[in-house]
Every structure is written in C-alpha cells, then in structure tokens.
Write a structure and sequence with these properties.
The chain is α/β, with parallel strands linked by helices and 308 residues long. Helix content is 23%, strand content 20%. It is built from nine helices and 15 strands.
Length: 308
C-alpha cells in the first residue's frame, strides 16, 4: 500500500534534503552551533541535575511487540578473577545483550525509510545486514549537547497523564510552550511530556505500550517551523498508537527521520524533570544527551541529563 497523498504534501513542506549539502549526514543536528551551546550553558543557575534515563534491566519497557527489541540481559563473564595469579588483583567483568532501541534511546536517521529512500535522498538499501547503516548511523553523532525545553503537554492540559490514544497537536505544543514561559528556538532539543511514563513506573509495561498518547502527524510542521534540532518524549512509540489513520503507520517517524533529518527519542523519563520545572517555574535547561557511538547503528541507548 502506497503512502497517501496527504502524507506526501506534508513531506514536501518539511523536507530538508540538500539544506546542509548533498553529503550531509547530521540533518537538524547541524542547527546546534557553538553559539547555541554557549546560550544553553547560560541557562544553568543552580547546577541541579535531573537524570532522564530508565534503568537498563531485563524487565524493561519492551513487551515483545516490536521484534528484536530485547530488554537488556546482563551477565557476569568473570567474577573476582585473579588474572595474574593467586593473591594478585582480581577483576569482575560484565556483558549485555540488548536491542539498541530497547530502553531510553535516540533513533538515528536511517532507523526508518519510506518510498525506498532515507534522509537526504539516499537509497534505503544502503542499510545492510553486515554493515548496518552506511550513512547517518548513530555513530556520526559525536556530541549532542544543547538547550533543552520541556513542553509539558499533560500539565498544560491540567492532567497528570494524557489519555491513551490521545494525539498531541500543534495547539497542545503552543499551550505547553506558553506554560514554559520560553519560546522554543533554533537548535533546541524539545522534550514532550505526555505523562505516559507513569504507567510504566507503576509496573504495567503492557498498558504503557498500548494504547499510548503521542505526537500527531500535524506536529512535524510545528517542529520544522521552529528549526528544532531533536525531539524526545516519554512513550514507547513516540507517535500516537494506534495510529490516527489505519492506512498510515509511523508517519511521524518518516517525516522526522527521513524528510527532516531530525533525530527522535523514546522512553525518556520526564517525571522528575516535570516536578523540577514546575517547582522552579523554569522549563529550559542545559541538556546533555550524547548517544553511544555504535558504528552503523540505527539507534542507541542514551543516559540524558538535564542541568537546571
């Protein structure tokens, strides 16, 4: 089934192919300039640090709904082993098997394709079984530090958590921006809180996964107009699930990653950040969120920290 005409119309309006040259692999991360980072550092007032990652553990967010997304399996490969003989220093080492998008993570630009293409018009077949992503893999993102802005949509709508299947609109983002008291600007990383993470933290990962609120297909144009560098939220699927239209699955993924070249993050725990921002009345902060540099990978776990 081909993508509907309405999708292609939005794609034309948000397309960034060639904007930073034909060889570009970073997409909207190009918007994070030295000046943007200097201004981001100036937002730090107290030094309070808020971690935004979920623990990496075997009973994590993945339910098996998405094939290959294995929750982290941690094993010890040596325990107090005296490598250089009896009485010498002993070492313990670990190993982990996990899907790179299993927990709190960034999606790299080649994570999805549509119509046979990836970001900047590259062919989808450049992602291979042995080499992974030839272009724009997560390893190309050597640093991701910028101003973060929490758009607390749930709080702006007067609730702790949006209803399952609620599609976040541009109007919701406007309301959350007004609550934040700061204008989202070029080079920012926007964190959209729906409150859905509360379901997982309460112990029900299946209800966390489905049904889930998330971003609607109307929101990519909002982010594009403001030149946002990256977007993350507190849900498993990022966009509303089940989808808004039965003939259009993962449209926000395709518009962000393929058309705009904008990384997106999922399973970010924004609950403590919501509390901290509410207490201080400040919703902008320094965000450190550099992914692990897996060569050729289409995503990576990340341990982001907001510094207030």
């Amino acid at each position: 089934m081909s993508l509907p005409a309405a999708f292609h119309e939005i794609a034309k309006r948000v397309n960034n192919w060639g904007r930073w040259g034909p060889d570009d692999e970073l997409g909207t991360l190009n918007l994070i300039t030295d000046e943007v980072v200097r201004e981001a550092a100036a937002t730090v007032r107290t030094g309070r640090r808020v971690p935004l990652a979920l623990p990496l553990r075997q009973d994590g967010v993945q339910t098996g709904m998405i094939p290959g997304r294995v929750n982290p399996l941690h094993v010890m490969v040596q325990i107090n082993q005296e490598l250089f003989g009896p009485g010498t220093v002993a070492c313990s080492d670990d190993a982990v098997t996990m899907g790179l998008q299993a927990a709190t993570h960034w999606d790299a630009l080649p994570h999805v394709s549509h119509s046979g293409r990836l970001y900047n018009g590259r062919p989808a077949h450049t992602v291979t079984a042995h080499g992974g992503a030839e272009f724009s893999g997560i390893g190309t993102v050597r640093h991701l530090v910028t101003r973060g802005v929490l758009l607390d949509v749930a709080r702006a709508r007067g609730t702790d958590r949006l209803d399952g299947s609620y599609a976040v609109t541009p109007e919701d983002l406007d309301a959350a921006e007004e609550l934040a008291g700061t204008r989202v600007r070029a080079g920012d990383a926007v964190l959209v809180r729906t409150g859905q993470m509360r379901v997982f933290l309460a112990g029900d990962r299946h209800a966390y996964a489905y049904p889930s609120p998330g971003l609607s297909v109307r929101t990519p144009e909002w982010f594009h107009a403001r030149d946002i560098a990256a977007v993350a939220n507190d849900t498993l699927t990022f966009e509303v699930f089940p989808p808004e239209s039965e003939d259009l699955w993962l449209p926000v993924h395709a518009l962000h990653l393929v058309e705009m070249g904008m990384p997106q993050g999922q399973n970010w725990n924004l609950e403590k950040l919501s509390t901290a921002c509410g207490e201080t009345g400040r919703y902008a902060f320094l965000l450190s969120a550099t992914p692990e540099p897996f060569t050729g990978a289409t995503g990576s776990p990340v341990a982001p920290v907001a510094v207030l």
